[in-house]
Amino acid sequence: MSNKFKKAVEYIAKLQGIGPRQATRITLAVLNWPKEEITRFSQAVFDLSEGVNLCRECFNFSEESKCRLCSDPKREPAKICVVEKITDLEAIEKTGLYRGVYHVLGGAINPLEGSLPQSLKIKELENRIKNRLATATNGSKEELEVIIATNPQTYGETTALYLEELLKPTGIKITRLAKGLASGSTLEYADSATLHHAFKNRR
Ligand SMILES: [Zn+2]
To answer: Which domain holds residue 163?
Structure first.
């Protein structure tokens, strides 16, 4: 096997869910692309080393300081759906049901892997809620809803409980997605109908 080929396969195989055989197939496919296309592809990967811009408000991908969802006047800013990752946000967006905004934590609390509350965007969520409450007019506290949509897995559950405890004293409405998503599954891979149901029946 050529060294160049081997190196590419090794990197692709590092991706979650991709084994060595699949990595080999992907590398072969890329080899068949025109040279300019391979160059553009490697440039795109290289550009990632500079980091990507995130929305200052919700931490979704964004080229501007605010993402397209946060700056959309048709979205309801008083409904904040808290997710672990941007891919979860995208899965919910695909259902087309949700009209509020999001807050991307950047993962779940998982002490074994060094993912602690302070390494997630939890402080930012608290500040966001505080700011909203401070600007809310005459007792519209009840209108603010935080929907906890972490994954129904051990660490997602830990994170949800942590957030519930943390936010309880604010007196705002806190809801969780309805059961129905198989426990141990992730939002990212749930089908639209299941997510739709989980959202509609949140409590
Ligand atoms: Zn945003």
So the answer is: 76-200
